[in-house]
Design goal:
RNA Polymerase Alpha Subunit, Chain A, domain 2; 415 residues; 30 strands; rod-shaped
């Protein structure tokens, strides 16, 4: 009986061992089959968009990314074929994180992960593994606005004044771009304008080569410009001398530089035909020591100078009036329009005595031997003495005859 029991136990023991071996073989065969049917693979997923994280960190620290503004990477994933078959590019997330970086050129690593519940999948590499960014500080400052003019106003009109509702603009942007800004421009078109007008002009920034800079923001973006267009007119200058000289002294050779002024205004200038100077007081019989006087114009209300920097100078001379008696050789008398059958009768008089009035400086320079006279003899038709009116033949100014008549004896020519 005992023998049989032992034999039974051995038999059961062998059965258990067989079962364990069967399980081990089954597991081995399962892994073997699965290795053939569902092997481990590595796949590369390309053009994965890189997300930018913590952009608000840049804003809070007054930084800005100058580029790149997007990035793509290739991600290598390792895992079982069955799981790899169930994913695509949408299951892969790549990102960089701006937090903790400062201005300058920075290298930020790219991190990638698999989205979803997978047991065997893992990211083995990312290419490129980092992205190079240019981070710059965001700054602000103010700059005056410059008005740029295009075209020309109508003839006899002029641009008189430009005013804006703001004079300065606030620029904000990357420090490297702000450093390039040379001017902030507002444009106006003056083509054929002849009246005042107001225009809204969009502002833009340019560098020293006049290239527009779009990487900076402007506040305000638009400015209102008031443009004053006036009529213009050229008028002569009138000097206003007040003489305190003796009665025999005169102010002569008055000259102004310029001779005319260009004035501007609205309809007020239509009635203005000349511009007077301020009063010029002369009390000494001498010229100004420096040779000229600087005087101011007296402008009517509503009228101004086109060029308010123009300097008006006046020169003049003070001359003494005098009289002088001279003897002119009778052969220096030219008889004009004398009829062919008439002639001047011979006389013993060799000179014609005349009295001149003029400025002493001119009288002192007269040469009696070369001084010329002229008389119109068109009315001489009979013999005898005739009264003729004398005229001076000279280019001298301020010279007059006091006794301008002469009695001459005429005779008929002998045929």
């Amino acid at each position: 009986m005992k023998f049989k029991m032992k034999k039974f136990k051995i038999k059961n023991k062998n059965n258990i061992i067989a079962k364990v071996v069967s399980v081990i073989v089954a597991i081995f065969l399962w892994y073997y089959v699965m290795g053939l049917v569902n092997p481990e693979e590595t796949r590369t997923y390309r053009n994965i968009n890189v997300a930018f994280k913590n952009i608000e960190y840049l804003n809070n620290t007054k930084l800005v990314n100058l580029g790149p503004n997007e990035a793509k990477v290739s991600v290598q994933v390792k895992g079982k074929k069955s799981e790899l078959d169930n994913i695509n590019e949408n299951n892969i997330k790549a990102a960089i994180d701006f937090r903790g970086y400062d201005s300058g050129q920075v290298r930020i690593p790219v991190k990638a992960e698999i989205i979803g519940q997978y047991n065997t999948l893992q990211v083995t590499s990312v290419g490129p593994s980092e992205v190079i960014f240019n981070l710059d500080s965001v700054e602000s400052y103010k700059k005056p606005i410059e008005v740029r003019q295009k075209g020309e106003v109508k003839e006899n009109c002029a641009l008189s004044d430009i005013s804006m509702d703001v004079e300065n603009v606030k620029l904000t942007g990357p420090e490297s771009y702000l450093a390039k800004v040379d001017k902030v421009i507002a444009e106006i078109d003056l083509t054929n304008k002849d009246k005042p007008f107001t225009i809204s002009s969009k502002l833009y920034a340019v560098d020293i080569k006049d290239n527009q800079i779009d990487q900076v923001s402007l506040y305000p973006q638009v400015v209102n410009i008031n443009v004053q267009i006036d009529k213009t007119k050229s008028v002569p200058i009138e000097t206003d001398f007040v003489s305190h000289l003796p009665s025999n002294y005169k102010i002569v050779n008055i000259k102004t530089n310029p001779q005319k002024l260009v004035i501007k205004g609205q309809d007020d200038i239509d009635s203005v035909n000349s511009i007077k100077t301020e009063k010029i007081e002369v009390s000494d019989a001498v010229e100004p020591k420096d040779g000229e006087l600087v005087v101011k114009p007296i402008l009517p209300q509503g009228v101004s100078l086109l060029d308010d920097s123009v300097k008006i100078t006046v020169t003049y001379e003070v001359e003494e009036e005098a009289e002088k008696e001279i003897k002119v050789p009778i052969e220096n008398l030219e008889l004009v329009n004398l009829k062919d059958d008439m002639e001047l009768r011979d006389t013993n008089e060799k000179f014609i005595t005349i009295k001149l009035k003029g400025y002493k400086s001119v009288l002192d320079k007269i040469d009696e031997e070369t001084f010329k006279l002229m008389a119109d003899a068109s009315n001489v038709t009979i013999e005898g003495k005739q009264q003729l009116r004398l005229e001076l033949v000279t280019d001298k100014e301020y010279l007059d005859l006091i006794n301008d008549t002469i009695s001459l004896d005429f005779a008929m020519k002998n045929n």
